[in-house]
Amino acid sequence: MHDPRKDHMDAVYQILRYLKSAPRKELIFRKNGHVSIKDYCNFDWASCADDRRSTTGYCIFIGGNLVWWKSKKQPVVARSTAEAEYRAMTLGVVELLWLKISPH
Length: 104
Known about the structure:
Blueprint: H1 6-21, E1 37-44, E2 55-62, E3 65-73, H2 81-101
Antiparallel strand pairs: 1-2, 2-3
């Protein structure tokens, strides 16, 4: 958001083209009477047999609506499941903090 590049805009255009080509599909955000933020994260320790790096995944819900999700390989090899789990939680918390401090 603070340093947009051409790749980011290309991704936005791809999403908009998809939505335009599928008019019966929609993004639904329900009013659930609360605006609580919840983060769920998971990891798969040393899931890649080639480089032994773990995979992290997390999703963020605001008011019960999914607003962000991501899955990616961790940048380093974790020595234990606990380390991989802490790295996964850290990525989710970073996104939560970004949501908290971003202007509304």
